[in-house]
Amino acid sequence: MKVLVVGGGGREHALIYKIAQSPLVEQIYCAPGNPGIAELAECVHIGADEIDALCDFAKAEKIDLTVVGPEVPLTMGIVDLFQASGLEVFGPNKAAAQIEGSKGFSKDLMAKYNIPTAAYQSFTDHAAAVAYIKEQGAPIVVKADGLAAGKGVIVAMTEEQAIAGVDDIMLDKVFGSAGASVVIEEFMDGEEASFFAFTDGKNILPLASSQDHKRVDDNDEGPNTGGMGAYSPAPVVTAELHDVIVETVVKPTIAGMAADGCPYSGILYVGLMIKDGKPRVVEYNARFGDPEAQPLLMRMKSDIVPVLQACARGELNQDSIEWHDKAAVCVVMASGGYPAAFEKGLAISGLDAAAQIEDMVVFHAGTSVKDGQIVNNGGRVLGVTGLGTTVKDAIDKAYEGVAAIAWQDVHFRKDIGARALNRD
Ligand code: AMP
Ligand code: GLY
Prior knowledge:
Elements: E1 2-7, H1 10-19, E2 27-32, E3 42-43, H2 51-60, E4 65-68, H3 71-76, H4 78-84, E5 89-90, H5 94-101, H6 103-112, E6 120-123, H7 126-136, E7 140-144, E8 153-156, H8 159-171, E9 182-186, E10 191-199, E11 204-206, E12 211-212, E13 215-217, E14 221-224, E15 229-232, H9 239-259, E16 266-275, E17 278-285, H10 293-299, H11 305-313, E18 327-334, H12 351-355, E19 360-364, E20 367-370, E21 373-376, E22 380-388, H13 391-404, H14 418-421
Helix pairs in contact: 1-10, 5-6, 7-8
The structure holds adenosine monophosphate and glycine.
């Protein structure tokens, strides 16, 4: 069969790495892809948000299954468009993707179905939002309602920071129309974990646990990023907690979406805050996590393609996934300056040497080719992912890869996985 993967980051590289292992697959295309992906798939020059052009391509090439990586095409309705053309596609439709596309939508869903989360209120009026912050006091969290590339959340330790956040979002419109409405919610304390489940809209198939490192610097300091590294399994998610998450969060979410007339199929990503062994939802995403997909998919033993097809067809009846009995750790190598401004086009050395290391894969994210040389072209550039018998071995393996690679101003955290180790 022919598979098309939409996107061009580390998540999509990891998806293609896994899809390429399937005996069912003859050819993989990726739009737009990246130089690392180009080693496994044919990259097509169509942007991930050019959904009409993607649909025309899939029809012309008779693609058997399309897998959508990022949230933007999902919230634009790529799944509705493909389905209307009779094409099989993995991911939620436009209505269901609101679970990520609108914070207000997801908070209302959680309230309606008693899914544990922070107390909140939504506002379209600036003065009312400021009054609410003054009434509640700090710490408090301010969120732009719509998609803001992971930057629309202000975790405010003071009232002043929270009000400045509301001003930026509602008055200065720094996130454009994503900030027409804000959600203001209770600050939650605890340890974060990412939980993923495949679903066809009715049945669910949970994945192994994982956790990412959101802050840019060691010891969880500095601003939030898309994720500076991730590991799987995450010891914070014990077998008991796994079951609690499935019963109190994942099942009611999927049942609630169906009951509300927008059944959710694809992969559901639940960001959780764990405190005293109890999970509360921080956010939902309508897609795989990045970088979490990289360690997760390296650990996955089962063929992923039948699972993706079953979700797309509404026929998910598999009740478990087989995992390699190893830990995986992904260290993100980023451009110096990220998540703020950074220089692009800097030559990356050591990729060939890194490719010789066993049990270690370098997933490409923000790379491109300039004059025949691979250069940095985004904030998060590479996801260096190692497998090991223990978390410690996987960390060592990933950092062995990192040590082989260099470019000017490269930045990476030196403590990825340390949280998991501290629990061993
Ligand atoms: P979100 O885009 O909603 O995932 O928020 C981005 C990050 O902000 C999360 O991963 C958390 O680290 C933090 N965050 C969001 N909401 C809260 C909250 N209510 N309490 C504490 N931290 C939060
Ligand atoms: N790792 C966070 C995200 O994918 O949104």
